[in-house]
Amino acid sequence: MKKSPLEKGEKAAGLGGCAGSFVPSRQKNLSVATDDPLSANFKRTWERVKIQEENRLPSPQRGRGAQGEGGHQGLSVHPYPSGARKLAKLFAAIILLFPSIELARAAGTLSRFEESQPHMGTVARIVVYAPNSGAAAAATRSAFQRIRELDGILSDYQAESELSRLSHQSGGPPVKIGADLFRVLSVAQNLAVRSNGAFDVTAGPVIQLWRRARRQRALPEVDLIAAAFDLLGFRWLTLDAKQQTAQLAKPGMRLDVGGIAKGYAADAALKILKQAGIERALVALGGDIAVSNPPLGKKGWTIEIASLNLSGVPKPRPLLLHNAAVSTSGDAEQFVELGGIRYSHIIDPRTGKALTGRRSVTVVAVNGIDSDALATAVSVMDPPKGLKLIDATPGAAALIVVKTDSAIQTWKSKRWRE
Known about the structure:
Structural class: alpha+beta
Radius of gyration: 26 Å
Largest sheet: 8 strands, antiparallel
Strand content: 15-25%
Strand order of the largest sheet: 2-3-7-8-11-15-16-17
Number of helices: 11
Order of helices and strands: EHHHEEHHEHHHEEHEEEEEEEEEHHEE
């Protein structure tokens, strides 16, 4: 993995959770280094110990940090039998290796690294600050693996995903599900109640029809929409926290967590990076971005908000965020024009119809699972009611921009700051 130049801002494009674009970097699609960072660091440490033993530095050099007064390594070496000496070398290497990230952080020597991979139907991008390419590569590799794992659990495109298997058992008894799926469905159900059905993961059958409409460029037949709409309803989904089960009451029900899964995956990847010792990172999946501590010397990550790209509409000011998440939902990327009407990929679960017109919703929240789901819900709500939902959510803020036939209207929640 190579170093990445510091960019002016991370663009929260990808309106509607589709493939996002970012401020151009001079290096893109960087490949992860294949060398094991532990092996590389161990080799360097082993070489330092070997030199130290040959030079036989005096004990006063100890306790002076990584460098002694004469510029030598501050490690005293004592004569040991051959086997014990090797063991001592190993322990010394381990002691020097594990604090490396902390020492680099304290010395302000962290560098920026980034990589992008296709996951969850979009572009997953990870930016980290790490002491070297090996540490960055190992951490991002684990984070991408976690995203890939969640895609295999939450995807409604994959027939063998855990979500699809649950849908296939609709109309049957409760089904035991894993912790990730249960967490996502629990948050979804909570928001479904709070939004009075504006957010509903049981909208799968209707969403399927509108996906086909975009591919075939033809409106869904009215009777098919009516039949699919009859299968929709978050109250037909029952969760049992004690048994960790889910039950879909009606045969033919189909779940779709596209409005919440990417935010959850961003949170999960960020957690993996933190466990790997990466305290300053950004994870973006399309229009969903989660960040931890800010880059060195900065107050936060500069996040650029995608606009509707309409004349007369000023570009929103960038956000400065740390330990937070932001999601933007809208129709900039996925839509179809039929009969002179622009139909968004966003479906209103309360009507079974695709949204029309132009709008974007940007939500900032404490974590990605909330920002993603809230942005989806507020997109189908009347803006004043959507802002009430945002204001009732601790730590959340929102910006709503809607184009009507006569004007461009903007709404901001109480906590929104630019």
